[in-house]
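During the no-cost extension, the postdoctoral fellow (Dr. R.K.) reprocessed legacy sequence entries with the updated structure-token encoder. One reprocessed record is reproduced below for audit purposes.
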Amino acid sequence: MRSAAQGFASFHCKRHVEHRARHGSHWHGSYRGAELKPYLAAATSYVKPRLETDPQIKDAVARLALLLEQSPYEIATRLRGLSAKTRAAIAFGRLRKKAIKPERLLAIHLAITVLIEEDPGSHRVKEFRLVQVAKAAHRLASGYHRVWPQQDKNGRAFRIELHTYARSTGRVLRLIGQAIEERCEWATEKHLDGVLALKVKRYGGHPSLSKGR
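Re-encoded structure tokens follow.
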């Protein structure tokens, strides 16, 4: 990339640089929904009964609620030309519009952190964690969807559909992940072991651990 005057990546090719932009790692891909599901279920079950009693969880949820409340909203078709900081703020506005609760974001942060901790093949760097948290949150409300019922000249009904999705890559993901982590890190640090223990009790250990035995 450097010799082609397309950037300053001295040690990685364009494909790996683009992979890092999308996933937060030059080599590790993003976790799929099926991989995250048991961790998210355990984190959600763990957080729910502690919403009113645990100080770290209460603080994280209150700060996330304020973030959602103060974030602007814009549809995904009107993001062109906006800065990464503005796009990240709008992403939280879309979550608010979709009625995503702040405790859901805390559960996502806990689930991703626990998954990375348990997965022996994961990439344990902050950037990867932030991007994975952001991508999991982004999937909850990333698109803009409209349907217009129409009729042709013979009276037959048909529909015109518009489905537009905000891009899930680059600095925007880092800013989304960082905003969530700043509000969740103390709760996650305190309850990481508890969520992991609940996940293992309900769903067993990470699949790669059983394969290695």
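The chain has a mean pLDDT of 85. The longest helix spans residues 171-203. The remaining legacy entries will be reprocessed before the final report is submitted.
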